[in-house]
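Late entry, written up from scratch paper. The run itself happened at the end of the previous shift, but nothing got recorded in the book at the time, so transcribing now.
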Amino acid sequence: MHKRVLTLAAIGLFFSAAAVAGGLSFTELDANGDGVISKDEAAGSATLAPLFSDADRNADGKLDKDEFAALVKPTEESAPAKK
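Output as recorded:
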């Protein structure tokens, strides 16, 4: 779990939402317009696809806007502690 949090935090620090999504916005990745990104839709992004399972925090097989945003902008609790 700790490793996953650090991985997501690092991604958030170094990439913008567009970069993580392979240059695609949430809306562009949500091809069918249902308000979530399915695993099949995420496959359209070579960068997002391998991160999908870790980003899917509630393990429902979809990324909602909050999960997508958390992938690229970690919260204070998921960010590495400052020394």
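The CA atoms of residues 9 and 41 lie 23 Å apart.
(Scratch paper discarded after transcription.)
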